[in-house]
Design brief:
single chain, 44 residues, mainly alpha, 2 helices, 48% helix
Length: 44
C-alpha cells in the first residue's frame, strides 16, 4: 500500500476534477499514506 498507488493518485484526480479555492481544508483519516513524506511535499 504505497502512497503513490493510493493517496497521491487520488489527490491528483480530485484536484483535477474539482474547483480549488484559497483556504481549502484537507481532511484525512490519518492513515499511514497521509503521513508519507511524498504526500506532505505535494500538499506544501
Amino acid at each position: 500500500m504505497s502512497a503513490e498507488n493510493t493517496i497521491l493518485s487520488d489527490w491528483r484526480m480530485a484536484t483535477r476534477n474539482r474547483n480549488k479555492e484559497q483556504g481549502l481544508i484537507f481532511h484525512s483519516d490519518r492513515g499511514c499514506q497521509y503521513a508519507n513524506t511524498k504526500f506532505a511535499n505535494v500538499l506544501n
